[in-house]
Amino acid sequence: EEQKRELTERLMQLKKERNAIILAHYYQRDEIQEVADFRGDSFLLAQKAAQTDADTIVFCGVHFMGESAKILAPNKTVLIPDERAGCPMADMVNVDGLRKLKAQHPNAKVVTYINSSADVKAETDICCTSANAVKVIQSLDCDEIIWVPDKNLGHYVQQHTDKKMIIWEGYCNTHDMLTVKDVVEMRAKHPNAQFVVHPECRPEVVAMGDFVGSTTAIIDYCKKSDCQEFIVGTEDGTGYQLRLDSPEKTFHFATKFLVCPNMKVNNLKKLVKCLETMKPQIYVPPVVADQARISLERMLQV
Ligand code: 13P
Ligand code: SF4
Predict the structure, then answer these.
(1) Is the interface score ipTM higher than 0.85?
(2) To test the ligand 1 pocket, which listed residue (27, 43, 45, 265) has its Cβ within 8 A of the most ligand atoms?
(3) What are the pLDDT tens digits along the chain (302 aa)?
């Protein structure tokens, strides 16, 4: 506790000196969410990065999120506490593979989940997040869509559109681990609870949801709902905001494995250190960034 207080004080001082803003994804450790200027899902944080007038953005999340911030705010310094915080799903698609698919389907538009690298975004017509995926698809004037990289979210979106979707086979290791059996067991233990689930989970698990939505959508739903008890089918860091909003409600995470190890690589100590040393910084080659920005800005307009 003593060390935490010292670190927090140092952080506040550095934040002022560097004119920095701290953005934290809901999957970050509590100690990071506690000191953030904004907590949010990937959509909200991308918006904040695009709008801020701070000189420095510290992005507490995984690498692709820092990249998106840098692409949207190219003149700012973007720091991440630990550059090893990657996203295995983002690494499941690369430029060569995507180009091959584009060649096979020349009339299709490419919709890329924001969980992807900058060079994949540069090959993309429009990005989306789990919060706006259906809206983004509906905004497009075409019959065929190449969807990368999340097959589970792709399957969910396909249920809301008549467009033909060619879906890449990527997935999130963390959300994809949740099974029907896990949920059945939890429902038996907590018969009064509603099951709220992220569309990165498997289709058969998503189908069991009383509510399906992005991290922010789940948080909003639980806050507003009359229900007092929830089984949560998304990453366990979400518990911080859920409990903050509704201390009187009960939240059971659907398994103890709903933890993204990449998100947890960051901690308060590394956050303070990166502002002190101004390292590691996110760098995106300007040619790639200029291309990728088009697809991100299109998403923000939708
Ligand atoms: P959202 O923040 O869009 O809910 O995405 C979840 C996720 O897995 C982020 O890495
Ligand atoms: Fe990637 Fe899944 Fe972790 Fe999000 S929760 S960063 S999609 S591995």
Answers:
(1) yes
(2) 27
(3) 899 999 999 999 999 999 999 999 999 999 999 999 999 999 999 999 999 999 999 999 999 999 999 999 999 999 999 999 999 999 999 999 999 999 999 999 999 999 999 999 999 999 999 999 999 999 999 999 999 999 999 999 999 999 999 999 999 999 999 999 999 999 999 999 999 999 999 999 999 999 999 999 999 999 999 999 999 999 999 999 999 999 999 999 999 999 999 999 999 999 999 999 999 999 999 999 999 999 999 999 99
Task: Say yes or no: CB of residue 299 within 6 Å of ligand 1.
Answer: no
How remote is the C-alpha of 141 from its chain's centroid? 26
H helices, E strands: number in the chain:
14, 12
Q: Give start-end residues of each CATH 3.40.50.10800 domain in the chain.
A: 2-86+263-284, 90-171+289-301, 175-253
- Is the CB of 173 within 6 Å of ligand 2? yes
CATH number for the domain formed by residue range(s) 90-171+289-301: 3.40.50.10800
- CATH of segment(s) 2-86+263-284: 3.40.50.10800
Q: For residue 212, which ligand has an atom nearest its CA?
A: 1
Name the token pair of 240. Answer: 């911080």
The torsion angles phi and psi of 86, rounded to 5 degrees, stand at -100, -175
28 lines ligand 2 (CB under 6 A): no
Location of structure tokens 């007038």: 53
Beta-sheet pairing, 211-212 with 250-253: unpaired
